[in-house]
From TrEMBL:
Belongs to the short-chain dehydrogenases/reductases (SDR) family. It comes from Crocodylus porosus. GO terms for biological process: apoptotic process; Wnt signaling pathway. The gene is WWOX. Pfam families: adh_short, WW. GO terms for cellular component: Golgi apparatus; lysosome. PANTHER family: RETINOL DEHYDROGENASE, WW DOMAIN-CONTAINING OXIDOREDUCTASE. SMART domains: WW. This is WW domain-containing oxidoreductase. Residues 45-78 form the WW domain. Keywords: Apoptosis, Golgi apparatus, Lysosome, NADP, Oxidoreductase, Wnt signaling pathway.
Amino acid sequence: MLYLKVNASSSYCLIGFFLFVFFSHLEEKTQWEHPKSGKRKRVAGDLPYGWEQETDENGQVYFVDHINKRTTYLDPRLAFTVEENPVKPTTRQKYDGNSTAMEILQGCDMSGKVVIVTGANSGIGFETAKSFALHGAYVILACRNMSRASDAVQHILAEWHKAKVEAMTLDLASLHSVQHFAEAFKSKNVPLHILICNAAVFALPWSLTEDDLESTFQVNYLGNFYLVQLLQDVLCRSSPARVVMVSSESHRFTDIKDSSGKLDFSLLSPSKKEYWAMLAYNRSKLCNILFSNELNRRLSPHGVTSNAVHPGTMMYSSLHRNWWVYTLLFTLARPFTKSMLKENLFSPSSWIFKCSSQIAANRGHSKKVDTKVTRT
């Protein structure tokens, strides 16, 4: 018999140089199946060319490689083992690109959880807020347009009249509005378990906000950054809690460094002459990822985790509404993208749930952590 080690607690031997039997030294039993994979293995075929099987003076089998002039007690056919009765796997991953938000939260009781979703009056923001509300969470729709936000609330209540959902004013293009929203939320004296920064603009013509910053940069990144800053003490007190930054794969197609490799702050809020809408969007999404990573590093010891997600193609959202060229391109691309069925129009929101529905298990401290960006 030829014995080989599998791990510290088990080994296997080759029976007749055809089948493997596995020994569990801890449980003192044998089995034909591999202890980890559950598969059966056997050696098949003849010895490779130039090899010969011999027996030493102690009766132990060894193998001679006449070509390379060497001997070994390992059967060279071990490199070519085959499975006994191989079967095709019958399982698939739990969630995929066609999973809907409701499928992700199926059987999940969100009662007692408080959720803020920015930009929740339409698109994946609305689907996210609705799914949380229908599973018992108290959901706040933080929106700029209160008329559309109120309509969204009524749509959710029409599906379940006991849903705990309300709309609050939040305009990320105004830092004063962000501050007012944070103060209004804190006055409710409720915890905050999930903050989803979903609101964004795309393909805006160049313009400045009331804070004299380029609009895409402030709405997509700086407004969200300021919102998290103002609410981080509530998040820490509510731990385990989670922040989700909705970013985009388009962050890969830009940079925020100058030719010397240093961070160039002028690229974040460019002048009209240097502005290109697509590039501004990409940079804002890159900032979201960098912020999320640093936020997670600083707050995770206090029970608050942060994730940045790419929600998928937004062909069926209103993200392209600001320029007719993008509207045309999105329309032409729709037949070649996923999520064509009505029930899957907003399946990208399921990826948001993968980051937000499983709240961290460990409770953190309520110590406030400084997450301000400093220039170096």
